[in-house]
Design goal:
Elements lengths: L2 E3 L1 E2 L11 E3 L6 E3 L8 H5 L5 E2 L3 H13 L8 H18 L5 E5 L2 E7 H4 L9 H16 L3 E8 L6 H21 L7 E5 L12 H7 L1 E8 L4
Parallel strand pairs: 1-9, 8-9
Antiparallel strand pairs: 2-5, 3-4, 6-7, 7-10, 8-10
Helix pairs in contact: 3-5, 5-6
């Protein structure tokens, strides 16, 4: 399990008409991706904008999953698998404070600082263990996915300190999920420090949003 700095890239959004479905928990109308097997190649790169793996580390994870008897997904089965995993994850994260977003055939969990870690700490908050237990249960139910855990910090403090803290927080989350039985070889763990804010660091509310851990769940495909 490696800790390295993730790189950022801009990824074009998918532009394809699809059937829609209403999310049972939020009422949001969103695409149904079951019929989108033709987009395997495009969706694989359309998640966060993180280049979280080199070809070698990705190949290593792929080979490890195959060695563990976890076959790759193909065609329409990719969207169907991720549809079902999304529904299960949204149900598990309901009322937890964790955001669940669908991006192409990937899922993104956004775990904000107010439910994950105290300020300047990489020790998981007691209440956060229950949330991670629920997440690990879904991840174990759907093993044909890669799990990229990326930590983020606000701009308070020195850059190098924030980088280390973001890595330590990501490692804490990843290590706990592994302790709950999620296959170690599915993981990539990285820290972004303060380089990828989602809100202004000029306010306490914005800094709290920026102190977060994100988990990107990507399908293990045959291509």
């Amino acid at each position: 399990m490696k800790i390295r700095t993730a790189l950022i890239t801009t990824v074009a959004a998918l532009a394809m008409t699809a059937c829609t479905t209403t999310d049972p928990y939020t009422g949001e109308v969103r695409p149904n991706y079951t019929g989108r097997g033709a987009l395997i190649g495009a969706a694989a790169g359309a998640a966060l904008g993180y280049l979280t793996n080199t070809s070698d580390s990705q190949e290593g994870r792929t080979n490890a999953l195959i060695g563990a008897g976890i076959g790759g997904l193909a065609g329409a089965g990719i969207g169907n698998y991720m549809d079902r995993q999304e529904t299960a994850m949204r149900e598990a994260m309901s009322e937890s404070g964790v955001g669940v977003r669908r991006q192409g055939n990937d899922l993104l969990l956004i775990m904000p600082g107010d439910v994950t870690f105290d300020t300047n700490s990489s020790s998981i908050k007691p209440d956060f263990y229950r949330i991670l237990n629920d997440a690990s249960e879904v991840l174990n139910r759907y093993p044909a996915t890669y799990v990229d855990v990326v930590g983020h910090a606000d701009s308070t403090g020195a850059d190098d300190y924030n980088q280390r803290l973001s890595e330590q927080r990501a490692s804490s989350v990843g290590s706990y999920l592994i302790s709950q039985g999620v296959l170690r070889d599915r993981f990539y763990i990285a820290g972004m420090g303060e380089r990828s804010p989602i809100a202004s660091n000029d306010t306490a509310e914005g800094r709290a949003r920026n102190r977060r851990v994100e988990i990107l769940i990507r399908p293990h495909t045959t291509s």
